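This part of the workshop introduces the protein records we will be handling. To make this concrete, we reproduce a full record directly below.
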Amino acid sequence: MVTAAFYFATLEDHATLLDYLGEPDKVTLHPWPVVRNPLDALSREEALATPQVLVVNRDLGPPVPVRPGDDAMNQPTKAGVFNRLNWDRLHPAHDEALVDSNASPVLLWVPAETGSEVIGVSQLGSQADAMAAISADYERWVNRTIGWIRRKGTKVWGLEQGTVRPDLNIELGFINSVYALPGAFRALEQGAAGR
C-alpha cells in the first residue's frame, strides 16, 4: 500500500474499527480489485474472510472503474503498468472493471486471519499515489482512519529499537511500524504469536 496502517486485531478489534468507520451506514464493504456496477456488497463476516476489501465512503463517492482503452490503463506510469498487469492477470469479465486507485476515494483493507494462537498483520489505507489529487476530504479521511488505528493501538513492532517488544512473540519479515489494537494487545501479552 502507498499509505497504510499495519496492525494486529482480534475479531472484536475489527468490529470496533468497522464501527468507527460507520459500516454499514456510512461505509460499505466490497471485493477488491475487480468491481461491478452495482458493486457486490460484503457483510462484515464475508469481508473478514476476503483477502482484499474495498471500503467505500458514501459521502466521498464510489470507486472509479478502469478498463482497457481508459487513460488510466494506457498511461506510461507505474499505475498504468500495474493496471495492465492486473487486467491480464485477473481477466475481468465484460461487466467488470478494476479499481482506479489514483482516482477512487476508497480504502483498501487487508484483514488478516485471526486465531487464538496466531494473529496476522492487517492493513488499511490508500493505494493512491497522491491522495490530495483525489480530494482534500479523501486525504483527511484516510489520515483520520490511520490516526485512529495509531491512537487506539500500541506500537509493538518497527524500525526504532524501543518499538520492538521482546516480551511478545512477534516475528515479522518487514520493518514497518505495527500497532496492536486493544484486544490483540491483550492476546499477544497472553502468549498469542504475531505473524
User: Anything to note?
Assistant: The chain is about 30% helix and 25% strand. The chain has a mean pLDDT of 93.
